[in-house]
From TrEMBL, chains A, B, C, D:
SUPFAM superfamilies: Acetamidase/Formamidase-like. Gene3D superfamilies: Acetamidase/Formamidase-like domains. It comes from the Bacteria. Transmembrane segments: none annotated. Pfam families: FmdA_AmdA (PF03069). This is Acetamidase. GO terms for molecular function: hydrolase activity, acting on carbon-nitrogen (but not peptide) bonds, in linear amides.
Length: 339, 339, 339, 339
């Protein structure tokens, strides 16, 4: 363990081509030791180029440079077959502004390049949100009427992941077994994300901060914002993780990312059945029955190139998971105590 | 309005062939007037034939007689183009026992007749749950180990619906635009369900009581139980409803039932975008943006012949919806006051 | 066997509400004996109401009265668990005109009520085709330019089916295990369709004649035409058929209808693996391997409420299927000899 | 144009880790000039490691080294926005043996890592096929019975593609907009494949030879064989191609690869509607109608990580496409004349 904090910042003012837009395929920017705290920040998904309602994504944002990631960080000692635990100590909007938009042929209620149709695109429009960091509110204002609403601030990262397996390099717009653009609001401060390591050093990256989002992220764009983030990593050696998992104080969570959406559901719930069986000693069939009666199943996104479903099980139903009886030997509780 | 209560009970001891297993296609059993309270009960989805862990569904339950419905009730004055509001005053397990099971080729994590494969069926097994109606608990006991868990009682109806459009008659195992087997835990006491009327008299039926279920109802069978239910109906004349909606004190909810699951998501969220626009006066595009940031999206079921997704929006974000400014002219608040 | 021909005609000039629009739920119009020839005709899917390019479906056709079926016919002796063999002796356009159209929110390349989006409908338009019954051609003429094309006439029925199981009544717009609106061009003269019987009398109906269609029926509407049809039925007692199958002189064919489309594929190919194993004596695993290398897999439709895939296996690869060694005891060859 | 032939061979006897298993992410092995003929060969998808029915894929084949590709070849002058035309002059099995197998959790009729379930894997088994290159036959022999069948030899490449866009590197097991593992039998000698260029030099690779396969490649493994292949490439400058297209003497073909399978259908058919409109001058709506009546729609694969559908339109229906009026300025006819 190390108490030294690694401070690292992306070069937001430099050539956008030099930022990181993939999981895998990029050289590490720095090295993190297990137990070490990382203090960094992430650009918003548009690289900060949208600042007013008069700007449109298709005019301002280069499609090659969407969703820049901070990283990748080489995690000392990480090897294929390990699990990387990433605990978010703090996730806070860097500025008092969030932006959102409709993007042509992107979103759940429009034709897309993969759900290809003959419709013209829906209208493109930008919304700017005031973030009230004192009151912890996100202020929505309609564009066509004077409707307004004050929504709870709930900062999170849409994207966190490692290098994929099989030598693949995947766009930061895509979620998968390596993590990536899962867009679940569960990736907030206080949560620990478990990612299976596929390559030496793991190559952790993160980005896509949201001041808040609805489940499903219907139009494809949340309240996007640059984010100041502090996290601490830990390694669980020799413990593979097939699909990203999340743990907070109240829940165990599994994720699945695929299409159709029922396959994302299947992955998340199969993983939860196996995980609950492992932690409680129940048989697989008993665990299947148990998960059927206790799971919460929020959709994470139905807009990225693959869709994500989260399965949540309250830890209080699982009996005594204290200390090393907890998931991955109790790493969440240990990292939580650092916060 | 009428204060008279209609009491009606299914003939649980008679010929199971005489019970109701479809939406549409059955003669009404009684007439309900708008404003009238109905006090009734519903058999569990196995018609009460499973009472011990030694019984298997495939041996005890005739596949023609699964999921019997109480009804249909003819609603006086209901005509195509109206909306039927069904408010649940009370939903209480009739006995202190619930049952569940795995059923061959049924469930989310198994091959099924539609997701057809070459695997043999998963093992069939029955679980019996003690329902502690005082402590409001559902007691789970593993079959293969001594693991137990006490889960919150949360009684609900898996199935509520009316006769479908286009002259169709649909099995009570299926959800759709007429309601049916949506299997969402939101269908609990205190909720109002809005169903579009397709035929004269609407032909309301309900059943499939669950002492509780997880979202998604992963193995396809919740904690099944007979249910004592009191409800009150109201008619909203000339207000069509394309897909079932639910309102409780805190949320507006839309549902979609289809396959693949992303189409169920699309239906529910398109309907919510339209509903929020109508109630707030926002433009469709502003509503799309707003719903993107506020929707909760629990999966209801991924096991019936079509899958169901629920979209929930907190009413407190929508401004002043008091009195007749509320959904369907404020019918939920009025019916709620009857409880 | 009977040599007597049953001649029956729908009342095309009467009240359209009196025609048949469902599988199940309609009283039989006549009785057919096994071995008996039926000579009849079917209205086109618009009930004959579109006769010029100036008419639009949404203006002329009542949505309750789309896709009228001829029938249902009570088949003497048919009982649940039997298979009804329907052999098409002749399928010929009744008039020298076919029509097609785009229909708002219907088709594979548009948002639909189930793939719900926020797009306005694609433009609605009607095309009229000249059918040259001598030259066996279908003459296409573009509406916006002078492009024309002469396509081979290939008459077929989009819809053929029996009453569904579980007491269901299904719209004639929908395909399923009972047959219905499968929209495969394989349902042409010379083919035998095998349908599992679900109710006494089977209740056979047919309709939706197409002068020709592409596979997938992309925009949802083929070259629609009234059809003069002669067929002969046979019963295979005690031989259930889970999903519709088709046999012609060259191929065995299975169908699956579901969503997503891969589930329709799975059904058709699982059924073919089982059928080939049964006919050849191969093990299921050997049959799986064999079907992998020989199957042809045309998509039938991706536009109806469920989608249909056909799996075809050339009979010449299956060894000696002569006489009673053939499928269903060689019924196709026997009925074919009637033609 | 160049008459010089580039001869290049993979190092089949070296370290399998040094072969190419991705599209993108590998250094070019040689340079091809437009108009130049390439004479090469490709290993089978198991790298030649399966030679008898006693070998199982899971025991013999390293999952990191499946589906090795020959290439990538740098195509001189190729730049993003161009189209690379790859015309197959000759595709011939290199040996007289093909192999196939079932692979645990891989295939259309089994649970997979993405259609995740709780079933154990189907049995793993290997089949060896004799290829009779004189009689042009592929000889199937059942493992469990003495059933045999002689099937037509129809050699093809399951995999051909270029580097993907957005800096991605994709496994050779996956199909997509860059080509890759489409597994369509249309990729045979005499066909021209059109691939949109995403990076300088295009980086063409190919592999996965099949002596034949059924459409859909149901169990996931065709009659796999090393292949001697001769091809010629051409560049169409400034003509982007969104998804791979194929042309042979009789048909124009478009492909789409996605999940669910209906999205693969949608891509292929939207692309065909646009292509036919461009070549004939028809409006998009007229082309939509026309494609509806003429398209053939074979499924290519339902087994890889994404699924592929092909849309075929007979060229004879499209009017005069001779000379430069043909697709991409008539490049297929010109390359065909080299054969």
């Amino acid at each position: 363990m190390s108490d030294e904090v690694l401070r690292w910042a992306p070069d937001a003012d430099g050539d956008p081509a030099l930022l990181t837009y993939t999981f895998g395929g990029a050289a590490p920017v720095a090295t993190l030791r297990p137990g070490q705290v990382l203090s960094t920040w992430t650009l918003d998904c548009f690289g900060g180029r949208i600042t007013s309602v008069d700007q449109l994504v298709s005019e301002v944002a280069d499609p090659r440079y969407l969703n820049p990631q901070t990283g990748p960080f080489w995690v000392e000692g990480a090897a294929p077959g390990d699990t990387l635990a990433v605990h978010f100590l703090s996730v806070e909007p860097r500025y008092a502004r969030g932006v959102s938009s409709t993007v042509p042929f992107f979103g759940a209620l429009t034709a897309t390049p993969r759900t290809a149709m003959l419709h013209p695109a829906l209208p493109e429009r930008t919304w700017v949100y005031e973030l009230d960091l004192q009151e912890r509110l996100v202020r929505y204002a309609a564009r066509d009427t004077d409707f307004t609403a004050a929504l709870p601030l709930d900062p999170m990262h849409g994207t966190v992941g490692v290098a994929p397996p099989l030598g693949e390099v995947r766009s930061s717009l895509t979620p998968g077994s390596w993590g990536g653009n899962m867009d679940t609001p569960e990736m907030r401060a206080g949560a620990t994300c478990y990612l299976g390591v596929n390559v030496e050093g793991a190559l952790l990256s993160l980005g896509d901060g949201h001041a808040r989002q609805g489940e499903g992220e219907t139009c494809g764009v949340a309240v996007e914002t640059a984010m100041d983030t502090t996290l601490v990593v830990e390694l669980v050696k020799g413990a593979p993780t097939a699909w990203p998992r999340i743990e907070d104080d109240a829940h165990l969570m599994t994720t699945g990312s695929s299409r159709p959406l029922e396959d994302a559901f299947r992955i998340a719930h199969q993983q939860m059945v196996l995980w609950v069986a492992e932690l409680t000693g129940m048989s697989e069939l008993d665990s299947y029955q148990f998960v059927t009666q206790v799971a919460l199943t929020p959709v994470a996104n139905v807009v990225d190139t693959d869709y994500t479903v989260v399965c949540k099980v309250p830890k209080r139903f699982l009996g005594d998971l204290d200390g090393t009886r907890g998931a991955y030997g109790g790493v969440h509780a240990r990292l939580r105590s650092r916060g």
